[in-house]
Amino acid sequence: MDSKRSLPCELFRAATRSIYFRGRARIAKKLATLFLPNGYHFHRLSNGKVLLLDAHDYFQGCMYFGIYQPEIALLLSDFLTEGDIFFDVGANIGYFTCIASALVGPTGEVHSFEPDPRSFDLLQQTVNANQDREHVFPNQVAVSDRLGSLQFNMVDQIGWSNVLPNTQHAIQNTIKVPAISLDDYVREKNIDPARIKLIKIDVEGWEPYALQGMKNILSSSSPSIICEYNTVGLPAIGFQLEDIKKLMSSHHFEGYAIQEWWMNPAKSSVQILTGKKISALPLQNVNQLDDCDLLFLKGTTPRHLRIIETR
Fold it and tell me: Which domain holds residue 59?
């Protein structure tokens, strides 16, 4: 089922599991161009799942090599165990869905949300190929603050399409997509919010509305939340970092800005950690951030997380 592997790609993929270094994405892109087939093929991930991807695409090539947002993959491995429920909001082609599916197993559940018809088709094919339909549930909807529909801007790069009124990307065309809030979805599917262990949200700047649509989940339970912080997308819809901090603190969540340890620039006021860990800067210490991922917790600290304070 999966495409023919090349020895250079496999050696590099094995090396990047234990060694972090700058420029690895550029090396991965070069290796994929030289040794992996162009176009969409099933490729086997290190956890045994297969993923339908185009290894010549920069981001999907990083997925093949296991270096796509590795800090999120580490957090998934920290939080998720057999029998847990995971929500993948903005699932793209299904990379984190595949990782989570292996972690929660057949007794757990993965609920994936992806409005882009191109990405959703690839996601569905991946779920079918892994024979995961009994516990992985793809939903072709946008996640927002209410039930309804949204105008969805299709852009050339898969993973960058969005519902922003003023997108920075060139729009191919605009389509109408159904939208749902996570509170509505949980009620409709009769899911116990207490069983939801982790929610990952990456919706290209629409994150505040996704968070507003899960207030009942946030108030009645304590799932950990991984949420993208988009410095362009948030202002386009009238939100700032402080708005997200206030919303989450009102439900007693503590927030952190997270990155791979080596990505903290030398000019920043945080200490750079060593080892295969994730740096976490408490949000109460900052008022402005570059693009990063945010982590919100209620009384849980994952093992790979090392909290760092300003000097």
Answer: 1-67
